[in-house]
Each structure stands twice: as C-alpha cells, then as structure tokens.
Amino acid sequence: MGIRRRTTRQIYLAGGLGFTWFTCPFNNRSRAWCDSSCMASTSASVTVGTESLAYDALRVLVNWQRERRLKRVQAARTATELIAAGGGYYNGDQLGHSLALQVDGSIACWGWNGSRQAPPDGILGDFTAVDAGLWHSLALRRDGSVACWGRNRDRQAPPAGVPGNFVAIAAGGYHSLAIRHDGSVACWGRNNEGQAPPAGVPGNFVAIAAGFTQSLALRRDGSVACWGWNLNGQAPLAGVPGNFVAIAAGALHSLALRVDGSIACWGGDHAGQAPPDGIPGDFMAIAAGMYHSLALRRDGSVACWGLNNDGQAPPAGVPGNFVAIAAGAGHSLALRRDGSVACWGLNTNGEAPPAGVSRPFKATQADL
Questions:
Q1: How far apart are CA 196 and CA 179, in angstroms?
Q2: RCC repeat positions in this chain (predicted)?
Q3: Rounded to whole angstroms, how far apart are CA atoms 368 and 298?
Q4: Residue 82 to residue 44: CA distance in whole angstroms
Q5: ∠ at Cα 136 (132, 141), nearest 5°?
Q6: What is the rounded distance in angstroms from the CA atom of residue 295 to the CA atom of residue 256?
Q7: Which residues are paired to 86 by β-bridges?
Q8: For a Cys-Cys bond, which of 42, 108, 330, 332 suits 16, CB 3.0-4.6 Å?
C-alpha cells in the first residue's frame, strides 16, 4: 500500500516497547545471563511516520461495522509528539531516562545520562518520533532516516545514524528495529538470541516493538510475528493470531491491544505484568515496562498492573486527561492534552520528577 505523504502526525499503533533485564529484584526464575547490567524501556508507541499508512492498515483489520471504533483507536494513537521511557539496572542500581518530542521537532531528555543516551541539552533536529532503549536512544527524522545516540558497543546506536526510508522505530535492549516504507523490518545491534537478524525480517508490517531480547511486529491482518528469545513464551516462533491494533514488548512479557479494546498478554507473569487471561476493558493504547504494564483508557486515565515496588504501577491506576503513555524500568510517564508530562515511580536520576515536566511538548487534541 503506497504512502501518499509523510506528515508530522504519529500513529500510536504500538503502545509501548518495554523491556528490561533481570538481575536484581527477583529469584532465579527471572534471571538469565547478564553483562553486569539489566534494563527496561518503553516508548509511548512505536510510531508509524505517516498518517495514511497506519490508518489504512487499521482499516483492513476489521469490517465496516467497526469503523467508528477504529477511528477512535486511531485518534488515541495519533499525536504530534512522542514520549519514551528507558533504562535498567547496572551493578545493582536502577538507572532510567526519559525522552519527549518538543513542538519545534527537537527532543528533550532527562534522567540518567551515563551512556549519553539522555543529554540534558536535548537533541536538535526535525524529528517525528523517539524511542528509548536500555542505554541508547533513537529518533525518526522527517526524511525517514534514523538518528541514534547513547551506548553503541553492539552497534545498536551508530553515531552516524541509519539511512533509509523508514516509517517506524523501536529500541530494544541492545538492538534496534525500523519499519521500511515497504513494510519490511530492518534490524541492527546484538543478535545473540535472534532478536535482530542482520538481513532483517521481510513482511508487510505496520508496527514494531522491541523487548530486551525479543522483537514483535504487527501484520496488516492483525496477527503478531515474533522472533528472538522465547524462554518465557514472550516471543513464540509461530507468532500470535488475533485481531490486534497495537503491540508492546516487555522484559519477559508481551502485550497486544485487540480491536475491541481488551488486552492479550503472554510471556512471564511473575510480577503480575502479563496475566494469561488478559485484561478486559475499553483501552486505546498500551505500554510494557520492566515488570509492569500500562494501558490508556478511553476517558484519559491510566490503568496499571504488575510490579509496583517503586510506585511505577499503582493498582488503582492514575487519573487524568492523558493522550499517551510510556513505561520504563521503574518509572512511568503520561502525556497530558496540554503538552505537559506526568511522571510516577522511581526518580533516582531525575527520570520521573513527581511534579512532572512542563515544556512545549507536542500533544494530540483528538477527542478520545
């Protein structure tokens, strides 16, 4: 399906790309090899860089009787900003960072900057989307190329960036993904578990999500393709059939938003982050963090479940008039209609100031 034009509007097809690594809070069931660091990260969505591509892709997922619902879902994903939350554990300390797209196309950064993934002065440019990984960050330029900064030991964030005609990005643990104009997925960075094959992944995809060592992609028919590490069932080789409109990848778990507003969960559930029976509701967006999950309700409030040791996922949820969400290692973000960002959870490195962050961030004014 051709793309008519690139716009500044971002389609929130993948509600959150969480991921993390597993030293610290849990027992051996949630441990695996670790190169002295553990991580978690998500963005408010994996963003499709053209309005026409995402909307057309959504339309083919359902019949005409669900068109009204689809338009509401599209509106909830559509924004002229993007927020992202990343970070993880390093030598026992949890280190998080946050990103947000400003009205002038530049990127604001706050939180831990040990790998230069969140420079306090931000990143200048004409960007349309951002995503936060473990120790690296990505941004999609208006021309379709990808800017990268932060840790690059596994070539997940080459300083020169990645040229191409991309429409979506996702930052994982030590790997990165991007959807090309033709719907195929480009991969770079660490591939020890098959999460980022250098040849990429062919297909006709409309959204992507990168976990720590797993990758997901949403097909136009609403099913989910998975590749990478599957020890906890977070990335079944056969994929996940369904009528989905959004995906999110966590450390050990994965989420997908159905067209009816309910959420399917699979993978590790040791902290209650991915109940096998899923989450009923009328949700418009999802985000997967370290061991916690978020979902944006139609009324603008946020539902939370999973690990809440640092207040990142209060069981009662978070009231508000939000239009986007992001989940990191131990913190969570939500973008308000007025362009300000609410933060909750761990704030050790300033990644989630309790007072929030008020800057000229872009925000959709769509009526949810």
A1: 13
A2: 144-182, 183-221, 261-299, 300-338
A3: 6
A4: 6
A5: 65
A6: 11
A7: 97
A8: 42
The answer to whether 16 and 45 have CB atoms below 8 angstroms apart is yes
Q: Report the C-alpha gap between 133 and 290 in whole angstroms.
A: 12
Q: 284 with 76: CB under 8 angstroms? A: yes
Q: Per-residue pLDDT tens for 35-60? A: 334 444 554 443 333 333 332 333 33
- Has residue 228 got a pLDDT over 60? yes
Q: How far lies 229's CA from each of 82, 251, 256, in Å?
A: 28, 10, 18
The span from the CA of 167 to the CA of 156, in Å, is 18
Q: How far is C-alpha 204 from the chain's CA centre?
A: 20
Nearest alpha carbon to residue 291 among 318, 309, 317 = 309
Q: How far is 214 from 352, CA to CA, in rounded Å?
A: 26
Q: Among candidates 307, 213, 292, which has minimal Cα distance to 255?
A: 292
Residue 88, CA distances (Å) to 135, 291, 311 in order:
8, 11, 16
Helix, strand, coil tally for the chain in percent (to 5): 5, 40, 50
CA distance 309 to 202: 40
Domains of the chain: 67-345 (2.130.10.30)
Is it the case that residue 26 has pLDDT exceeding 60? Answer: no
